[in-house]
Specification:
- The chain is of the alpha/beta class and 385 residues long.
- It contains 15 helices and 13 strands.
- It has a 7-stranded mixed β-sheet with strand order 2-8-7-6-5-3-4, sandwiched between helices.
- Helix 3 runs parallel beside helix 11, helix 7 packs parallel to helix 8 and helix 12 runs parallel beside helix 15.
- The longest helix is centred in the C-terminal third of the chain and has 19 residues.
- The protein is globular.
């Protein structure tokens, strides 16, 4: 039986994923050792509170931080971190959320950091106070009585003006307020697993199903304070809390631990060399493919997931009226199906400045698939309307 049979029995045709570790494209492909760890976990019963605590200790030891908690992805991590800050580990307050009556429930955030994923904070009962990226505005906001903490986001699609995390953390410390960070896709580099805590953040969440190649429904919260990690556990499953419906199963917890063990031991320099070769190969095939089409090596905006990818753009008139969306749809409709990342304004606000692009990410390709992608993209560009 082939790896694709299970999908085809359901009537779903798999794709070659050149779109990156996007949730809508099912994240990443797990390492066989991660799959084996999950299989092992599935064969026994376990006390979930004990497993959460043990997994957190192991991850904290591996990364070198005060504490850790496995959650059901980084979006769940945002909700759980917010709940932990608002309710702590107090049982009555935990059960009260998302009703925040009597609790500080406001999170200061920069205008440029607001995005669709921060809905998770509101699911826990939190609300936002948006401020400009100045020390004066941030400091004044943090001193307000109803403020629970500061919510900071690292993301390649938040391209507006920001304020350094270390500055925010100094201001928050002076006001006695914790800083929580959404860093879902901020590795590689590996050093980021500690960097944001070292800069003063109190809690940081990462996806386990992106570059770390763990289960798509797994993530981690790393903490600089043991009490806040304890509060994260109190606000997550198996407890009756806002995190109850975001539960990570025993299989996902063990899979996340194994994925982090493997990720810490990887040859990251070799990974970068492979990705550069794949990008160069695609660019060679696309060079001068169609007059008016530009193709270049690009890195994501920001600090995290610094993995090179290929970007292409053109004026629709130069391609017989076909847009980036048209070409992306054609690639996904043909065989083998190829998924890429479509950058355009209906989804990404920053596309107003960059213009529409197609991006082809190589870190989600199996070795050799870069040749298939390059030839198919060239053919799609050369085809008539």
């Amino acid at each position: 039986m082939s790896d694709m049979d299970i999908y085809r029995r359901l009537g779903v045709e798999p794709v070659i994923n050149a779109g990156g570790t996007l949730t809508r494209l099912s994240g990443s492909i797990m390492h066989p050792e991660v799959v084996e760890a999950m299989k092992e976990a599935s064969r026994q019963y376990v006390d979930m509170t004990e497993l959460h605590a043990a997994a957190g200790r192991r991850i904290a030891e591996l990364i070198g931080v005060e504490g850790a908690h496995v959650c059901a992805g980084a979006t769940a991590g945002i909700a759980i971190m917010a709940a932990a800050v608002m309710a702590g580990a107090d049982r009555e307050r935990v059960r009260q959320l998302p009703d925040t009556t009597g609790l500080a429930d406001c999170f200061v955030s920069l205008h440029a950091h607001r995005n669709a994923f921060d809905q998770a904070l509101r699911l826990a009962g939190g609300r936002f106070l948006n401020v400009d990226p100045t020390a004066e505005d941030v400091g004044a906001a943090l001193r307000q009585q109803d403020v629970a903490g500061f919510f900071y986001t690292f993301s390649w699609f938040n391209t507006g003006e920001s304020l350094d995390l270390s500055v925010v953390c100094e201001l928050a410390k002076a006001a006695g307020k914790p800083v929580i960070v959404d860093a879902a896709a901020e590795v590689p580099p590996l050093a980021h697993l500690r960097l944001f805590l070292d800069q003063g953040a109190d809690l940081v969440t990462f996806s386990g199903g992106k570059a770390m190649c763990g289960p798509q429904s797994g993530g981690i919260i790393l903490g600089a304070r043991a009490d806040l990690i304890e509060a994260c556990a109190a606000n997550d499953a198996p407890n009756m809390s806002v995190g109850r419906g975001m539960k990570a199963g025993k299989e996902e917890i063990c899979g996340v631990v194994r994925a982090i063990e493997l990720y810490m031991a990887r040859d990251h320099a070799a990974d970068q060399q492979l990705w550069e070769r794949q990008v160069a190969h695609i660019l060679r095939i696309l060079e001068n493919a169609v007059e008016g089409v530009l193709a270049w090596r690009q890195l994501p905006h920001g600090e995290g997931q610094q993995i090179p990818h290929v970007a292409i753009s053109w004026e629709a008139a130069d391609l017989g009226g076909r847009s980036c969306a048209d070409v992306a749809a054609a690639l996904k409709a043909d065989s083998p199906r190829i998924a890429c990342q479509l950058i355009h304004e209906p989804v990404y606000a920053f596309a107003k400045e960059t213009g529409p692009q197609l991006r082809f990410h190589v870190h989600t390709l199996k070795e050799g698939e870069e040749g298939i992608v390059a030839q198919r993209v060239r053919s799609a560009l050369e085809s008539g309307p």
